[in-house]
Please model this.
Amino acid sequence: MIGKNIILNYYFFIAYSIIYMKGSIVYECKAKCEELGKCCHNTKNRCIEKMCEVDKEECKKMANFLKCLMVCECLCSYICTCCCEHEEVSSPCLQELCGKCDKLSDCCKKLKGCLSKEMCGYLNCDKLLGCCNACKGVGKSKSKSKKSKKK
Model:
């Protein structure tokens, strides 16, 4: 009976470690989410300002971009709160962040395809793409696997 409890506790610990990100990675996550959230916040008004200056089709793309900015800003705020108050972030929460970053990245790429380089610079497209890539890389190993090194 005691052996089974030890094994069950071990499996629970492994499952808990997989489901929740804890420790120093949480602080890395918080820093990257704060940067993305601030960038989203600072870009919203710029997007609204420029929506009046573009054609209807471009305006629709900018409206989608604006929605993504608002959602990512709120999600980043939530994740930062989890980092501060609980010192952990759940795996589903990180998956949601990756999904929203993918959507925001797609919006940035679509805007880069139809707007001028100056306008995309003003809308922080490249900066947002960098922030999203950084957030998607949180908690992933920085070293390459042995198979990758052999190739």
Q: What stands out?
A: The radius of gyration is 19 Å. The mean pLDDT is 83.
